Prior knowledge:
Blueprint: E1 2-7, H1 10-21, H2 29-32, E2 37-40, E3 45-50, H3 52-60, E4 66-70, H4 71-76, E5 82-86, E6 92-98, E7 110-113, H5 116-125, E8 131-134, H6 141-144, E9 150-155, H7 159-163, E10 167-175, E11 177-181, H8 183-188, H9 190-201
Parallel strand pairs: 1-3, 1-4, 7-8, 7-9
Antiparallel strand pairs: 2-3, 4-11, 5-11, 6-9, 6-10
Adenosine-5'-triphosphate binds next to helix 1, helix 3 and helix 4.
Amino acid sequence: MLTIAMPKGRIFEEAVELLRRADYALPPEFTESRKLVIDVPEENMRFILAKPMDVVTYVEHGVADLGIAGKDVLMEEERDVYELLDLHISRCHLAVAGLPGAKMNEIAPRVATKYPNIASTYFREQGEQVEIIRLNGSIELAPLIGLADRIVDIVSTGRTLRENGLVELERIAEVTSRLIVNPASYRLNGGDIERLVDRLAAVIPQP
Ligand SMILES: Nc1ncnc2c1ncn2[C@@H]1O[C@H](COP(=O)(O)OP(=O)(O)OP(=O)(O)O)[C@@H](O)[C@H]1O
Ligand SMILES: O=P(O)(O)OC[C@H]1O[C@H](OP(=O)(O)OP(=O)(O)O)[C@H](O)[C@@H]1O
């Protein structure tokens, strides 16, 4: 049996839709219950529903064979998992944003973000030394109330930036969700996993 860690939240619906398009008979309880472990015996599969940032942890520890995770999460922390497939779902990008015309503080430039590693690597590569302030959400607040000069965050429609009077300044990376696998499980269950990859690859939305 294959165990797949699914990210709750905004990726979930698109991931379920993709699996159903690939002809996996996922029961209605998938989208209608609050169960966190859902067995689908007809497909010889078990799904566990986790927070997006935790999916990689379940896969890395081998309690899930496979998982679906945003490229942002995979970029943020070096983890011992293989990326098998770009699912082309939950498309967005990582960007630097700030108040229009606002310069970086020259003495103590500060950047607020949920992605401290991505942000510090990016600014280091730009040759800029900044203090990273880690937040867990509502990142766009930081420049509005003077906590930071810049933010590094996900942009999708751009609506959150717009409605808060912020502008995108630099694009860091494109983000889509990926199918990831535990390396040991891949060696052990290669055949079953390749079949799943083929079925998904056949129905992935075109970029
Ligand atoms: N605005 C967006 N549009 C499309 N995809 C997004 C958007 N924001 C985040 N994502 C993708 O969805 C994932 C996060 O989903 P979601 O927003 O449901 O969780 P979260 O509440 O931010 O995560 P956590 O609970 O771990 O903090 C991200 O890793 C990213 O790949
Ligand atoms: O460009 P947009 O379409 O407006 O989407 C971008 C917003 O979506 C995410 O936030 P989320 O809704 O996950 O809330 P959060 O602030 O709690 O992270 C992201 O952090 C941005 O704030």
